[in-house]
Design goal:
- This protein is of the alpha+beta class.
- It has one domain: Aminopeptidase (3-Layer(aba) Sandwich), CATH 3.40.630.
- Helix content is 27%, strand content 30%.
- It contains two helices and four strands; from the N terminus they run βααβββ.
- Strands 1-2-3-4 form a four-stranded antiparallel beta sheet.
- α1 runs antiparallel to α2.
- The longest helix is centred in the N-terminal third of the chain and has 14 residues.
- 12% of the residues are buried.
């Protein structure tokens, strides 16, 4: 069994991560109108892949999920803003 590895997201992966988020949301049977309404919130920007705010989960060289960490600059606390898992292999 391949090991799960966590690493910072790369700016070049922003599009791939955005597609993963849409695929994951679509797994739950939401209609196209709802998914379209969610697209902006689920879009990962290259600037978010700055080595601090986005952590990617990789298994066997394939990105299987990510978390986006939120918080305010200078704050000692933060939270998981978004968590995405590739659900296609779980059905």
């Amino acid at each position: 069994m391949d090991t799960l590895t966590l690493r910072p997201g790369l700016p070049s992966e922003a599009s791939t991560l955005s597609e993963l988020a849409m695929r994951s949301k679509g797994f739950w049977g939401y209609d196209e109108d709802f998914l379209t309404a969610c697209r902006e919130d689920l879009t990962v920007l290259p600037s978010e892949c700055d080595g601090r705010r986005l952590v990617v989960a990789v298994v066997g060289g394939i990105v299987v999920g990510y978390i986006r960490v939120g918080g305010t600059q200078g704050s000692v606390t933060s939270s998981i803003d978004t968590g995405v898992t590739d659900m296609t292999g779980m059905s």
